[in-house]
Amino acid sequence: MEELTHTRHNHLIDPNLTIWGWEIPVYLFLGGFVAGMMILSGVIYLRRRNQPGATVVFILPYISLILLSLGMLALFIDLEHKLYTWRLYLTFKPLSPMSWGAWILLLVYPVLILKILINPFFLFRDVAPISKFYKFLNASADRKNFIAYANIVIGAMLGAYTGILLSALGARPLWNSGILWLLFLVSGLSGAAAFIHLIAPDKGEREMMAKTDNYLLAGELFVIAFFLTSLLSSSAVHIQAATILLSGAYAPSFWGFVIIAGIIIPLIIQSLAVSHKVKHTPIAPLMVIAGGLILRFVIVYAGQLSGY
Amino acid sequence: MNAPFFKFEYFTPDFSLVIAILIGIGFGFFLEQAGFGSARKLAAQFYFRDMTVFKVMFTAIVTAMVGVFYLGWLGWLDISLIYLTPTYITPQVVGGLILGLGFVVGGYCPGTGMASLSTGRVDGMIYILGVFAGIFVFGESFSIWKDFYVSGKMGQITLYELTGIPYGVIMFLVILMAIGGFIGAEKVEKYFAKKDAEASK
Q1: B15 contacts in A (CB within 8 Å)?
Q2: Mean pLDDT of the A92-110 span
Q3: CA distance A252 to chain B (A)
Q4: CATH hierarchy code of domain A2-305
Q5: What is the greatest pairwise CA distance in chain A?
Protein backbone atom coordinates (compact mmCIF):
# COMPACT_ATOMS: atom_id res chain seq x y z
CA MET A 1 0.00 0.00 0.00
CA GLU A 2 2.85 2.30 0.94
CA GLU A 3 4.45 1.71 -2.42
CA LEU A 4 1.23 2.19 -4.33
CA THR A 5 0.32 5.52 -2.75
CA HIS A 6 3.84 6.96 -2.74
CA THR A 7 5.37 5.77 -5.97
CA ARG A 8 2.18 5.03 -7.88
CA HIS A 9 3.51 1.91 -9.54
CA ASN A 10 -0.02 0.78 -10.18
CA HIS A 11 -1.32 2.50 -13.32
CA LEU A 12 -4.86 2.29 -11.99
CA ILE A 13 -4.04 4.64 -9.10
CA ASP A 14 -3.98 7.71 -11.32
CA PRO A 15 -6.49 7.97 -14.11
CA ASN A 16 -5.27 8.98 -17.55
CA LEU A 17 -4.62 12.69 -17.10
CA THR A 18 -4.19 13.83 -20.67
CA ILE A 19 -7.39 12.69 -22.29
CA TRP A 20 -8.25 15.72 -24.42
CA GLY A 21 -6.94 15.60 -27.96
CA TRP A 22 -7.51 18.00 -30.87
CA GLU A 23 -11.30 18.01 -30.55
CA ILE A 24 -11.61 20.26 -27.48
CA PRO A 25 -9.21 23.02 -28.61
CA VAL A 26 -10.82 23.05 -32.06
CA TYR A 27 -14.26 23.33 -30.47
CA LEU A 28 -13.13 26.07 -28.07
CA PHE A 29 -11.55 27.99 -30.94
CA LEU A 30 -14.57 27.71 -33.24
CA GLY A 31 -16.93 28.56 -30.35
CA GLY A 32 -14.90 31.69 -29.50
CA PHE A 33 -14.57 32.62 -33.17
CA VAL A 34 -18.33 32.38 -33.74
CA ALA A 35 -18.93 34.32 -30.52
CA GLY A 36 -16.66 37.08 -31.82
CA MET A 37 -18.47 37.15 -35.15
CA MET A 38 -21.88 37.36 -33.43
CA ILE A 39 -20.78 40.28 -31.26
CA LEU A 40 -19.09 42.17 -34.09
CA SER A 41 -21.90 41.57 -36.59
CA GLY A 42 -24.34 42.93 -33.98
CA VAL A 43 -22.19 45.97 -33.31
CA ILE A 44 -21.59 46.70 -37.01
CA TYR A 45 -25.32 46.37 -37.71
CA LEU A 46 -26.22 48.81 -34.94
CA ARG A 47 -23.56 51.27 -36.07
CA ARG A 48 -24.30 51.11 -39.79
CA ARG A 49 -28.06 50.52 -39.93
CA ASN A 50 -28.67 53.83 -41.63
CA GLN A 51 -25.95 53.30 -44.20
CA PRO A 52 -27.05 50.79 -46.83
CA GLY A 53 -24.57 49.09 -49.14
CA ALA A 54 -22.31 46.07 -49.18
CA THR A 55 -21.89 44.84 -45.66
CA VAL A 56 -20.45 41.77 -44.02
CA VAL A 57 -23.14 41.70 -41.32
CA PHE A 58 -25.44 39.37 -43.23
CA ILE A 59 -22.71 37.03 -44.46
CA LEU A 60 -21.40 36.30 -40.98
CA PRO A 61 -24.43 34.39 -39.61
CA TYR A 62 -24.17 31.82 -42.44
CA ILE A 63 -20.46 31.30 -41.76
CA SER A 64 -21.15 31.22 -38.01
CA LEU A 65 -23.75 28.49 -38.40
CA ILE A 66 -21.34 26.32 -40.42
CA LEU A 67 -18.35 26.88 -38.11
CA LEU A 68 -20.34 26.37 -34.92
CA SER A 69 -21.77 23.14 -36.31
CA LEU A 70 -18.24 21.97 -37.14
CA GLY A 71 -17.18 22.87 -33.60
CA MET A 72 -20.12 20.97 -32.14
CA LEU A 73 -19.17 18.01 -34.32
CA ALA A 74 -15.65 18.08 -32.85
CA LEU A 75 -17.17 18.20 -29.37
CA PHE A 76 -19.48 15.32 -30.22
CA ILE A 77 -16.55 13.23 -31.51
CA ASP A 78 -14.84 13.76 -28.16
CA LEU A 79 -17.83 12.52 -26.13
CA GLU A 80 -17.42 9.13 -24.53
CA HIS A 81 -21.17 8.40 -24.35
CA LYS A 82 -22.46 9.98 -27.55
CA LEU A 83 -25.99 8.65 -27.24
CA TYR A 84 -26.54 10.37 -23.88
CA THR A 85 -26.05 13.94 -25.23
CA TRP A 86 -29.80 14.63 -25.05
CA ARG A 87 -29.72 14.22 -21.27
CA LEU A 88 -27.95 17.61 -20.98
CA TYR A 89 -31.24 19.14 -22.10
CA LEU A 90 -33.39 17.44 -19.47
CA THR A 91 -32.01 19.63 -16.72
CA PHE A 92 -30.40 22.98 -15.96
CA LYS A 93 -27.71 23.15 -13.29
CA PRO A 94 -26.89 26.81 -12.52
CA LEU A 95 -23.57 25.87 -10.92
CA SER A 96 -22.36 23.76 -13.85
CA PRO A 97 -20.60 25.60 -16.70
CA MET A 98 -21.25 22.59 -18.93
CA SER A 99 -25.00 22.91 -18.35
CA TRP A 100 -24.81 26.64 -19.11
CA GLY A 101 -22.83 25.85 -22.24
CA ALA A 102 -25.33 23.29 -23.48
CA TRP A 103 -28.19 25.78 -23.14
CA ILE A 104 -26.22 28.74 -24.55
CA LEU A 105 -25.37 26.65 -27.62
CA LEU A 106 -29.05 25.92 -28.03
CA LEU A 107 -29.83 29.66 -27.98
CA VAL A 108 -27.10 30.53 -30.47
CA TYR A 109 -28.75 28.78 -33.41
CA PRO A 110 -32.13 30.59 -33.34
CA VAL A 111 -30.44 33.95 -32.77
CA LEU A 112 -28.19 33.39 -35.79
CA ILE A 113 -31.11 32.20 -37.90
CA LEU A 114 -33.13 35.30 -36.95
CA LYS A 115 -30.19 37.42 -38.09
CA ILE A 116 -30.24 35.63 -41.43
CA LEU A 117 -33.99 36.18 -41.74
CA ILE A 118 -33.58 39.96 -41.51
CA ASN A 119 -31.86 39.84 -44.88
CA PRO A 120 -32.15 36.33 -46.38
CA PHE A 121 -30.52 35.34 -49.67
CA PHE A 122 -32.57 37.08 -52.38
CA LEU A 123 -33.72 33.83 -54.02
CA PHE A 124 -35.44 32.71 -50.82
CA ARG A 125 -37.06 36.03 -49.87
CA ASP A 126 -40.36 35.10 -51.48
CA VAL A 127 -40.37 31.50 -50.32
CA ALA A 128 -42.78 30.72 -47.47
CA PRO A 129 -42.31 30.71 -44.50
CA ILE A 130 -39.08 32.73 -44.96
CA SER A 131 -41.00 35.55 -46.64
CA LYS A 132 -43.29 35.82 -43.60
CA PHE A 133 -40.39 36.16 -41.16
CA TYR A 134 -38.61 38.54 -43.53
CA LYS A 135 -41.61 40.84 -43.72
CA PHE A 136 -42.37 40.56 -40.00
CA LEU A 137 -38.81 41.38 -38.91
CA ASN A 138 -38.39 44.21 -41.41
CA ALA A 139 -41.67 45.83 -40.40
CA SER A 140 -40.06 47.31 -37.30
CA ALA A 141 -36.59 48.71 -36.64
CA ASP A 142 -36.91 47.73 -32.97
CA ARG A 143 -37.25 44.05 -33.89
CA LYS A 144 -34.08 44.17 -35.97
CA ASN A 145 -32.22 46.04 -33.24
CA PHE A 146 -33.41 43.50 -30.70
CA ILE A 147 -31.92 40.69 -32.83
CA ALA A 148 -28.64 42.60 -33.12
CA TYR A 149 -28.53 43.07 -29.32
CA ALA A 150 -29.44 39.39 -28.82
CA ASN A 151 -26.51 38.42 -31.06
CA ILE A 152 -24.17 40.57 -28.96
CA VAL A 153 -25.41 39.21 -25.60
CA ILE A 154 -25.59 35.53 -26.60
CA GLY A 155 -22.25 35.87 -28.43
CA ALA A 156 -20.61 37.31 -25.30
CA MET A 157 -22.05 34.47 -23.22
CA LEU A 158 -20.78 31.88 -25.72
CA GLY A 159 -17.29 33.42 -25.86
CA ALA A 160 -16.99 33.72 -22.09
CA TYR A 161 -18.35 30.22 -21.50
CA THR A 162 -15.55 28.59 -23.52
CA GLY A 163 -13.07 29.97 -20.97
CA ILE A 164 -15.25 29.37 -17.91
CA LEU A 165 -15.59 25.72 -18.94
CA LEU A 166 -11.87 25.25 -18.41
CA SER A 167 -11.40 27.55 -15.42
CA ALA A 168 -14.09 25.68 -13.49
CA LEU A 169 -11.82 22.62 -13.42
CA GLY A 170 -9.92 23.22 -10.19
CA ALA A 171 -7.72 20.17 -10.67
CA ARG A 172 -5.79 21.91 -13.45
CA PRO A 173 -3.89 24.89 -12.01
CA LEU A 174 -3.21 26.49 -15.41
CA TRP A 175 -6.91 26.66 -16.19
CA ASN A 176 -7.93 27.57 -12.66
CA SER A 177 -7.80 31.31 -13.33
CA GLY A 178 -10.60 33.83 -13.02
CA ILE A 179 -9.41 35.64 -16.14
CA LEU A 180 -9.37 32.77 -18.66
CA TRP A 181 -12.90 33.61 -19.86
CA LEU A 182 -11.77 37.14 -20.71
CA LEU A 183 -8.71 35.84 -22.55
CA PHE A 184 -10.81 33.51 -24.71
CA LEU A 185 -13.45 36.18 -25.30
CA VAL A 186 -10.89 38.79 -26.40
CA SER A 187 -9.05 36.22 -28.53
CA GLY A 188 -12.35 35.16 -30.16
CA LEU A 189 -13.22 38.80 -30.88
CA SER A 190 -9.78 39.45 -32.31
CA GLY A 191 -9.97 36.36 -34.57
CA ALA A 192 -13.42 37.44 -35.76
CA ALA A 193 -12.25 41.01 -36.44
CA ALA A 194 -9.32 39.59 -38.43
CA PHE A 195 -11.73 37.39 -40.39
CA ILE A 196 -14.01 40.33 -41.22
CA HIS A 197 -10.91 42.32 -42.22
CA LEU A 198 -10.17 39.43 -44.58
CA ILE A 199 -13.59 38.98 -46.21
CA ALA A 200 -15.57 42.24 -45.89
CA PRO A 201 -16.71 43.50 -49.29
CA ASP A 202 -16.86 47.09 -48.04
CA LYS A 203 -13.53 48.96 -47.75
CA GLY A 204 -14.77 51.01 -44.80
CA GLU A 205 -15.68 47.87 -42.88
CA ARG A 206 -12.27 46.34 -43.63
CA GLU A 207 -10.47 49.45 -42.37
CA MET A 208 -12.69 49.63 -39.29
CA MET A 209 -12.10 45.98 -38.49
CA ALA A 210 -8.32 46.25 -38.94
CA LYS A 211 -8.33 49.15 -36.44
CA THR A 212 -10.62 47.26 -34.06
CA ASP A 213 -8.41 44.18 -34.32
CA ASN A 214 -5.37 46.26 -33.38
CA TYR A 215 -7.06 47.39 -30.16
CA LEU A 216 -8.19 43.82 -29.47
CA LEU A 217 -4.71 42.39 -30.06
CA ALA A 218 -3.17 44.99 -27.75
CA GLY A 219 -5.88 44.17 -25.19
CA GLU A 220 -5.19 40.45 -25.58
CA LEU A 221 -1.53 41.06 -24.72
CA PHE A 222 -2.59 42.79 -21.50
CA VAL A 223 -5.03 40.00 -20.62
CA ILE A 224 -2.32 37.37 -21.20
CA ALA A 225 0.01 39.40 -18.97
CA PHE A 226 -2.67 39.55 -16.23
CA PHE A 227 -3.39 35.83 -16.67
CA LEU A 228 0.27 34.94 -16.20
CA THR A 229 0.98 37.37 -13.37
CA SER A 230 -2.07 36.14 -11.47
CA LEU A 231 -0.75 32.57 -11.79
CA LEU A 232 2.79 33.63 -10.85
CA SER A 233 1.60 35.40 -7.72
CA SER A 234 -0.40 32.37 -6.56
CA SER A 235 0.58 29.02 -5.01
CA ALA A 236 3.56 26.87 -6.05
CA VAL A 237 1.47 24.66 -8.36
CA HIS A 238 0.11 27.72 -10.14
CA ILE A 239 3.63 29.10 -10.57
CA GLN A 240 4.69 25.73 -11.99
CA ALA A 241 1.70 25.82 -14.34
CA ALA A 242 2.68 29.27 -15.65
CA THR A 243 6.26 28.04 -16.09
CA ILE A 244 5.04 25.41 -18.59
CA LEU A 245 4.06 28.31 -20.86
CA LEU A 246 6.86 30.72 -19.99
CA SER A 247 9.91 28.47 -20.16
CA GLY A 248 8.70 24.89 -20.16
CA ALA A 249 7.54 22.38 -22.74
CA TYR A 250 5.04 24.76 -24.36
CA ALA A 251 7.25 27.88 -24.30
CA PRO A 252 8.27 27.67 -27.99
CA SER A 253 4.64 27.32 -29.14
CA PHE A 254 3.36 29.93 -26.69
CA TRP A 255 5.97 32.62 -27.34
CA GLY A 256 6.65 31.75 -30.99
CA PHE A 257 3.18 31.09 -32.39
CA VAL A 258 0.78 32.76 -29.94
CA ILE A 259 2.62 35.89 -28.82
CA ILE A 260 5.11 36.70 -31.60
CA ALA A 261 3.48 35.28 -34.76
CA GLY A 262 -0.12 35.46 -33.54
CA ILE A 263 -0.22 38.89 -31.89
CA ILE A 264 2.89 41.08 -32.12
CA ILE A 265 3.80 40.65 -35.81
CA PRO A 266 0.20 41.00 -37.13
CA LEU A 267 -0.27 43.98 -34.80
CA ILE A 268 2.78 45.67 -36.36
CA ILE A 269 1.66 44.80 -39.93
CA GLN A 270 -1.95 45.95 -39.33
CA SER A 271 -0.79 49.15 -37.62
CA LEU A 272 1.27 49.96 -40.72
CA ALA A 273 -1.70 49.01 -42.94
CA VAL A 274 -4.23 51.25 -41.17
CA SER A 275 -1.79 54.17 -41.32
CA HIS A 276 -1.50 53.44 -45.09
CA LYS A 277 2.24 52.70 -44.95
CA VAL A 278 1.79 49.18 -46.34
CA LYS A 279 -1.03 47.52 -48.30
CA HIS A 280 -3.73 45.46 -46.61
CA THR A 281 -2.86 41.80 -47.27
CA PRO A 282 -4.39 38.54 -46.00
CA ILE A 283 -1.14 37.70 -44.18
CA ALA A 284 -1.79 39.54 -40.88
CA PRO A 285 -5.44 38.41 -40.44
CA LEU A 286 -4.48 34.81 -41.23
CA MET A 287 -1.70 35.00 -38.63
CA VAL A 288 -4.19 36.31 -36.03
CA ILE A 289 -6.66 33.49 -36.76
CA ALA A 290 -3.92 30.82 -36.65
CA GLY A 291 -2.60 32.36 -33.41
CA GLY A 292 -6.08 32.09 -31.84
CA LEU A 293 -6.31 28.42 -32.77
CA ILE A 294 -2.83 27.68 -31.42
CA LEU A 295 -3.66 29.57 -28.20
CA ARG A 296 -6.51 27.08 -27.53
CA PHE A 297 -4.23 24.12 -28.30
CA VAL A 298 -1.46 25.46 -26.05
CA ILE A 299 -3.81 26.24 -23.14
CA VAL A 300 -5.63 22.87 -23.37
CA TYR A 301 -2.47 20.78 -23.77
CA ALA A 302 -0.32 22.69 -21.27
CA GLY A 303 -3.24 22.69 -18.82
CA GLN A 304 -3.35 18.92 -18.92
CA LEU A 305 0.35 18.83 -18.03
CA SER A 306 -0.23 21.02 -14.98
CA GLY A 307 -1.43 19.42 -11.77
CA TYR A 308 -1.09 19.16 -8.03
CA MET B 1 27.87 37.42 -16.25
CA ASN B 2 29.09 34.25 -17.91
CA ALA B 3 28.49 33.13 -21.45
CA PRO B 4 27.51 31.02 -23.39
CA PHE B 5 24.22 31.56 -21.54
CA PHE B 6 22.72 28.27 -22.74
CA LYS B 7 25.66 26.22 -21.46
CA PHE B 8 25.45 27.95 -18.08
CA GLU B 9 21.71 27.18 -18.01
CA TYR B 10 20.50 30.77 -17.84
CA PHE B 11 17.41 29.52 -19.67
CA THR B 12 15.82 26.15 -20.39
CA PRO B 13 16.34 24.19 -23.63
CA ASP B 14 12.66 24.90 -24.44
CA PHE B 15 13.15 28.64 -24.00
CA SER B 16 16.26 28.49 -26.20
CA LEU B 17 13.86 27.85 -29.11
CA VAL B 18 12.05 31.11 -28.26
CA ILE B 19 15.38 32.95 -28.41
CA ALA B 20 16.08 31.20 -31.72
CA ILE B 21 12.78 32.55 -33.10
CA LEU B 22 13.68 36.10 -32.02
CA ILE B 23 17.19 35.85 -33.49
CA GLY B 24 15.69 34.38 -36.67
CA ILE B 25 13.22 37.25 -37.01
CA GLY B 26 16.00 39.79 -36.43
CA PHE B 27 18.29 38.05 -38.91
CA GLY B 28 15.57 37.86 -41.56
CA PHE B 29 14.54 41.48 -40.98
CA PHE B 30 18.06 42.85 -41.44
CA LEU B 31 18.75 40.59 -44.43
CA GLU B 32 15.67 42.00 -46.11
CA GLN B 33 16.44 45.59 -45.10
CA ALA B 34 19.94 45.19 -46.55
CA GLY B 35 18.34 44.32 -49.88
CA PHE B 36 19.23 40.63 -49.63
CA GLY B 37 15.64 39.63 -50.32
CA SER B 38 16.31 40.45 -53.98
CA ALA B 39 17.88 37.79 -56.22
CA ARG B 40 19.17 40.51 -58.58
CA LYS B 41 21.31 42.05 -55.85
CA LEU B 42 22.59 38.68 -54.67
CA ALA B 43 23.37 37.31 -58.14
CA ALA B 44 25.20 40.57 -59.03
CA GLN B 45 27.82 39.43 -56.52
CA PHE B 46 28.85 36.55 -58.77
CA TYR B 47 29.25 38.87 -61.76
CA PHE B 48 31.35 41.31 -59.65
CA ARG B 49 28.83 44.12 -60.24
CA ASP B 50 27.74 44.50 -56.62
CA MET B 51 30.03 43.25 -53.86
CA THR B 52 27.63 44.05 -50.99
CA VAL B 53 27.17 40.38 -50.07
CA PHE B 54 30.89 39.85 -49.79
CA LYS B 55 31.33 42.99 -47.67
CA VAL B 56 28.42 42.24 -45.38
CA MET B 57 29.40 38.62 -44.83
CA PHE B 58 33.03 39.42 -44.21
CA THR B 59 32.04 42.23 -41.82
CA ALA B 60 29.83 39.77 -39.93
CA ILE B 61 32.66 37.25 -39.69
CA VAL B 62 35.16 39.84 -38.46
CA THR B 63 32.68 41.37 -35.98
CA ALA B 64 31.79 37.97 -34.50
CA MET B 65 35.43 36.87 -34.40
CA VAL B 66 36.67 40.04 -32.67
CA GLY B 67 33.68 39.94 -30.29
CA VAL B 68 34.28 36.34 -29.32
CA PHE B 69 38.02 36.95 -28.86
CA TYR B 70 37.67 40.00 -26.61
CA LEU B 71 34.72 38.64 -24.62
CA GLY B 72 36.86 35.54 -23.96
CA TRP B 73 39.84 37.73 -23.07
CA LEU B 74 37.69 39.70 -20.58
CA GLY B 75 36.54 36.43 -19.03
CA TRP B 76 32.88 36.94 -19.91
CA LEU B 77 32.74 34.16 -22.48
CA ASP B 78 34.13 30.65 -22.10
CA ILE B 79 35.29 29.97 -25.65
CA SER B 80 35.84 26.28 -24.93
CA LEU B 81 32.08 25.89 -24.34
CA ILE B 82 31.00 27.33 -27.70
CA TYR B 83 29.59 24.60 -29.90
CA LEU B 84 31.65 24.00 -33.03
CA THR B 85 30.29 22.06 -35.95
CA PRO B 86 32.59 19.05 -36.52
CA THR B 87 34.61 19.25 -39.72
CA TYR B 88 34.18 16.60 -42.42
CA ILE B 89 36.43 18.22 -44.97
CA THR B 90 35.55 16.43 -48.23
CA PRO B 91 31.74 16.39 -47.98
CA GLN B 92 31.75 19.96 -46.66
CA VAL B 93 33.84 21.22 -49.61
CA VAL B 94 31.53 19.41 -52.05
CA GLY B 95 28.45 20.65 -50.15
CA GLY B 96 29.81 24.20 -50.24
CA LEU B 97 30.31 23.98 -54.00
CA ILE B 98 26.77 22.64 -54.53
CA LEU B 99 25.33 25.41 -52.33
CA GLY B 100 27.40 27.97 -54.25
CA LEU B 101 26.12 26.60 -57.55
CA GLY B 102 22.55 26.77 -56.27
CA PHE B 103 23.23 30.33 -55.09
CA VAL B 104 24.40 31.42 -58.58
CA VAL B 105 21.59 29.62 -60.42
CA GLY B 106 18.73 30.48 -58.06
CA GLY B 107 19.96 33.83 -56.82
CA TYR B 108 19.49 32.99 -53.15
CA CYS B 109 21.04 31.10 -50.26
CA PRO B 110 18.53 29.38 -47.95
CA GLY B 111 18.43 32.32 -45.49
CA THR B 112 17.94 35.00 -48.13
CA GLY B 113 15.48 32.69 -49.89
CA MET B 114 13.33 32.67 -46.72
CA ALA B 115 13.64 36.47 -46.43
CA SER B 116 12.52 36.77 -50.06
CA LEU B 117 9.62 34.33 -49.53
CA SER B 118 8.46 36.37 -46.53
CA THR B 119 8.12 39.47 -48.66
CA GLY B 120 5.92 37.55 -51.10
CA ARG B 121 8.39 37.14 -53.98
CA VAL B 122 7.40 34.23 -56.18
CA ASP B 123 11.00 33.35 -57.13
CA GLY B 124 11.78 33.05 -53.41
CA MET B 125 8.82 30.70 -52.93
CA ILE B 126 9.94 28.48 -55.83
CA TYR B 127 13.50 28.54 -54.50
CA ILE B 128 12.41 27.39 -51.01
CA LEU B 129 10.28 24.65 -52.62
CA GLY B 130 13.48 23.55 -54.34
CA VAL B 131 15.33 23.60 -51.00
CA PHE B 132 12.70 21.32 -49.44
CA ALA B 133 12.71 19.04 -52.48
CA GLY B 134 16.51 18.78 -52.20
CA ILE B 135 16.32 18.02 -48.48
CA PHE B 136 13.66 15.38 -49.17
CA VAL B 137 15.66 13.69 -51.94
CA PHE B 138 18.83 13.78 -49.84
CA GLY B 139 17.03 12.34 -46.80
CA GLU B 140 15.40 9.56 -48.80
CA SER B 141 18.65 8.61 -50.54
CA PHE B 142 20.88 9.09 -47.47
CA SER B 143 21.93 5.41 -47.42
CA ILE B 144 23.67 5.97 -50.78
CA TRP B 145 25.64 9.02 -49.53
CA LYS B 146 26.20 7.88 -45.96
CA ASP B 147 29.84 6.76 -46.34
CA PHE B 148 30.75 9.94 -48.20
CA TYR B 149 28.79 12.07 -45.67
CA VAL B 150 31.05 10.97 -42.78
CA SER B 151 34.34 10.89 -44.71
CA GLY B 152 37.25 13.26 -44.05
CA LYS B 153 36.43 13.54 -40.35
CA MET B 154 38.63 16.08 -38.52
CA GLY B 155 36.50 16.59 -35.39
CA GLN B 156 35.77 19.98 -33.82
CA ILE B 157 38.78 21.85 -35.08
CA THR B 158 39.73 25.53 -35.31
CA LEU B 159 42.25 27.32 -37.51
CA TYR B 160 44.67 27.93 -34.63
CA GLU B 161 44.53 24.27 -33.60
CA LEU B 162 45.17 23.19 -37.19
CA THR B 163 48.02 25.58 -37.94
CA GLY B 164 49.52 26.09 -34.48
CA ILE B 165 49.45 29.87 -35.03
CA PRO B 166 48.14 31.74 -31.94
CA TYR B 167 44.45 32.79 -31.94
CA GLY B 168 45.29 36.51 -31.77
CA VAL B 169 47.62 36.30 -34.78
CA ILE B 170 45.04 34.38 -36.82
CA MET B 171 42.50 37.04 -35.93
CA PHE B 172 44.88 39.80 -37.01
CA LEU B 173 45.56 38.02 -40.32
CA VAL B 174 41.82 37.59 -40.99
CA ILE B 175 41.24 41.30 -40.27
CA LEU B 176 44.05 42.19 -42.70
CA MET B 177 42.48 39.85 -45.23
CA ALA B 178 39.11 41.57 -44.72
CA ILE B 179 40.57 45.05 -45.18
CA GLY B 180 42.39 43.86 -48.31
CA GLY B 181 39.17 42.21 -49.49
CA PHE B 182 37.12 45.39 -48.96
CA ILE B 183 39.61 47.52 -50.88
CA GLY B 184 39.76 44.91 -53.64
CA ALA B 185 35.95 44.69 -53.77
CA GLU B 186 35.64 48.46 -54.20
CA LYS B 187 38.16 48.39 -57.06
CA VAL B 188 36.43 45.44 -58.75
CA GLU B 189 33.05 47.20 -58.51
CA LYS B 190 34.48 50.39 -60.03
CA TYR B 191 36.26 48.46 -62.77
CA PHE B 192 33.10 46.63 -63.86
CA ALA B 193 30.94 49.76 -63.54
CA LYS B 194 33.37 51.53 -65.89
CA LYS B 195 33.43 48.54 -68.25
CA ASP B 196 29.62 48.40 -68.31
CA ALA B 197 29.40 52.14 -68.93
CA GLU B 198 31.81 51.83 -71.87
CA ALA B 199 29.91 48.85 -73.26
CA SER B 200 26.61 50.73 -73.15
CA LYS B 201 28.01 53.72 -75.11
Answers
A1: 246-247, 251-252, 255
A2: 89
A3: 5
A4: 1.20.1630.10
A5: 75
